[in-house]
Amino acid sequence: MSPAVASPARHDVILRIRGLRTHFPAEQRVIRAVDGVDLDVRRGECLGVVGESGSGKTVTFLSALGLVAPPGIVTAEHIVWEGREIGALPRAALRALRGREIALTMQDALTALNPALTIGTQITEALAAHADARAAGPRRDRAEELLRLVGIPDPRRRLRAYPHELSGGMRQRAMIAVALACGPRLLIADEPTTALDVTVQAQVLDLLAELRQTLRMSLVLITHNLAVVAERCDRVSVMYAGQVVETGPAARVIAAPRHPYTAGLLASVPDLDRPAEALRPIPGRTPDPAHWPEGCRFAERCPARMPECAAPQRMRRLADGEVRCRLADAA
Questions:
Q1: CA spacing 20 to 30 A to 253: which of 92, 160, 289, 320?
Q2: Residue 6 has pLDDT above 60, yes or no
């Protein structure tokens, strides 16, 4: 297991998202899936983005990369990549940025990969799509090199394989190879261990850690697994009901959460040192994204709620992060 490296300087931000909102019109209502997200990714770091299903984790990054199709509506104050405003880029420039500078791997490799094309074809097509000047033969050599990089044995033979002919772990590695084809500086891995057994999960996470170090890239791990965050990430952003509710160094957030939702997530994880202890699930359910509460969105489920929680809650700055909770004022 590769340990997390020290976080880069606070000012060294390569992706800055401010005021991101993504709405999906539906019958007689609007689903506000992402509703005012502020989020930074720093150079060289591993950022964990956690939260339960429907919290807006994946939609945040799809929105930032211009991958939300109509009728979805995306607005933002700023989405800045390496000093460039992404929202101001022409469509062709944005398409070139995706894959070449920022890459994304999706949850299920079997559905993310094209079942009708070999793994080799999918890697060489990624190279060709981003103006790789090499001829077909050298591009295939590069594809073989990438499969070797992600730890797939006998890579020349695997280039001819179709996704269904590979195991779950092999498919995940192949999808990572496609994402890395053009040497991105940021890899966004969306639930990279979904549907994999525990041993293979560890192998994939070890691979991502090694690639991050070898290629000197930043890594975003979108996950619901707090153990992964504790072991692998430098910082963490916790999302709930379309908003970021807490951010800070992963070690501190796991050891001393400042938002009641983060504390509730941690309390609902089984403790291997006390296997007989009953789990403490968070009571209630996430509010309707078409009708978010006016005040704190966690208030109805929160054991520390107070009358003041009925008012909108802003992010409050901490010494090492931020939290969207009035309790921070009393700390």
A1: 289
A2: no
Query: Kind of pairing, strands 84-85 and 78-81?
Result: antiparallel
Per-residue pLDDT at 8: 42
Cβ pair 286, 296 in contact under 8 A: no
CB-hemisphere CA count at 13 Å for 261?
A: 27
Whether residue 5 is predicted with pLDDT greater than 70 in this model: the reply is: no
Burial of 56 (0-12, 13-18, 19+ CB in 10 A): buried
pLDDT class for 255, splitting at 50, 70, 90?
Answer: very high
Q: Write out pLDDT tens, residues 181-212.
A: 989 999 999 999 887 888 999 999 999 999 99
CB atoms within 10 A of CB 289: 21
Q: How far apart are CA 68 and CA 78, in angstroms?
A: 17
Tens digit of pLDDT for each residue in 277-321? 777 889 999 999 999 999 999 999 999 999 999 999 999 999 999
**Cα–Cα distance between 52 and 312 in angstroms, integer?**
22
Question: How many Cα atoms within 13 Å fall on the side-chain side of residue 169?
Answer: 17
* DSSP assignment of 38-61: EEEEETT-EEEEE--TTSSHHHHH
User: What's the CA gap between 15 and 195, in Å, rounded?
Assistant: 29
End-to-end CA distance of the chain: 35
How many helices (H) and strands (E) the chain has is answered by 12, 13
